[in-house]
């Protein structure tokens, strides 16, 4: 049967009391505090509760991890049986088609399906979340903001889950350079739920983008009880805290956080190592990685080449392979990733990024700079956030420094993103260049 939820979205259920569990599952997914599927099990009685199945699938595919996408694929195939399809509403059909397109890497097609749903149901928070996650993973930064602003006008502050929408909006505004608006939207979300992790995370980005590294760390410390144990975003939020420490050259605290929090995973075998890889690489660029156990991190990426699905994850696997001199693994992954994961449109950008990292690991710094400098203006195509992608700009700057090309290093420091604000880290780079200029030696 189809029951409309309190936001006017048709939900296909097998009994009316499932609406409450749907709401709790949505809160789990949006708040990232617990597994949304913990509120249901697909018993024969619930087999046709498509609303719960859809939440489960969106949650799985949003991870962009191959194993999770395969699980979602199995579920979709199960429900493609004729009698299950007969139960589906038009929204269910579009959502299932969108999920299937996503699994098959037809991302534009998935986006079209989700957008069609939102035209009829702009308060469909599940589809909003799916669209947002797809846009985020694809690096469709502008679209991310447009989608949220289109649907927001239909929402009322009193609507259930409105706060989560503001949390998502705050991140979209931040990624589009609207920092004060981001802060305002995040504050509104936090006034509804102080543990809204998406809003907390946006505020971390806000402090990073506005160069308030001390203030950001202080804000995080003052509000630590609200985020330190969040199940699915905890590691990434700790990574933001470590970034503030990096910009202040506080390697003692950074290393402590890396070991005690960023390496404290929910599942030792789980794919929760992206932030660790990114932090390790940044520290390695500064030659301050002596206290980091690279081999331990490599263990988590050992089998990754078999599970490659998404370029942004591949890039982080490569950082670990290059950091640990696993050249064969790196070359295998590059070949597989370019053939399998890259759309034709983005292939040039991704290939150039792979080459830049490879040249850097081989000590060919001039070539590394050239390859990476080429992609910086269009690096959103790699996916992830601006702050995450800054690792490639930092690598380009370090490549220029090591190549002894002072003017190129200076150019990126003065015109890029990483060092648009003053910080001890920026001063470290500027002094390094100046000192070597005075000595008249190649850096
Ligand atoms: Fe982030």
Can you characterise this structure?
By secondary structure, the chain is an all-alpha fold. Helices cover 67% and strands 1% of the residues. The chain is built from 24 helices and two strands. Among the domains are: 1-156; 161-263, Alpha Horseshoe (Serine Threonine Protein Phosphatase 5, Tetratricopeptide repeat), CATH 1.25.40. The longest helix is centred in the last third of the chain and has 18 residues, at 344-361. The protein has a two-stranded antiparallel sheet with strand order 1-2.
End-to-end C-alpha gap: 70 Å
Q: Share of helix among residues?
A: 55-70%
The largest sheet has its strands arranged as 1-2
Mean pLDDT: 93
Number of helices: 24
What is bound: which ligands?
Answer: fe (ii) ion
SSE string: EEHHHHHHHHHHHHHHHHHHHHHHHH
User: Using only CA atoms, what is the Rg?
Assistant: 22 Å
Question: What layout of secondary structure does this protein have?
Answer:
Elements: E1 2-4, E2 10-12, H1 18-31, H2 50-61, H3 66-79, H4 82-86, H5 90-103, H6 107-120, H7 125-138, H8 141-152, H9 162-175, H10 179-192, H11 197-209, H12 213-222, H13 224-227, H14 234-247, H15 251-262, H16 274-285, H17 294-301, H18 311-323, H19 327-340, H20 344-361, H21 365-375, H22 386-402, H23 406-415, H24 424-439
This protein binds fe (ii) ion.
Residues 201, 205, 236, 240, 385, 387 line the site of fe (ii) ion.
